[in-house]
Write a structure and sequence with these properties.
By secondary structure, the protein is an all-alpha fold. It is 67% helix and 0% strand. Helix 1 crosses helix 6 and helix 3 crosses helix 6. The longest helix is centred in the C-terminal third of the chain and has 21 residues. The N terminus is likely disordered.
Length: 107
């Protein structure tokens, strides 16, 4: 549960106003679009843009595609976290590192 809490923390932080100018939808990455479309109260264009920039530095396109699904289906994150496959374990390790970095940088 702690790993899930850490990764979801990325999506519940609030940034000070006017930290970054948000990208247009056409320019936004997968995670940014999913974040902006989510119903999370803390989601805002500045935060979503910031976590996308961190994702671009730390996660592959494939990882971002997988992670963006967590916004629509949080249960999927639990399934990946609990999975015993080497691929899911490796992804979750990368996701956890990303979530910590995004929380530090964007929070």
């Amino acid at each position: 549960m702690r790993l899930l809490s850490t990764s979801l923390l990325v999506f519940s932080l609030a940034l000070p106003a006017a930290v970054v100018l948000p990208a247009t939808q056409a320019e936004a990455g997968r995670i940014e679009r999913a974040c902006n479309a989510s119903d999370r109260r803390a989601a805002n264009p500045a935060l979503c843009s910031c976590i996308q920039r961190v994702a671009d530095q730390m996660l592959t396109t494939r990882d971002q595609r997988k992670a963006a699904r967590f916004f629509r289906d949080p249960q999927r994150a639990q399934e990946v976290r609990k999975s015993d496959t080497p691929a899911d374990d490796a992804f979750w390790s990368r996701w956890r590192d990303y979530a910590r970095s995004a929380a530090d940088i964007c929070g």
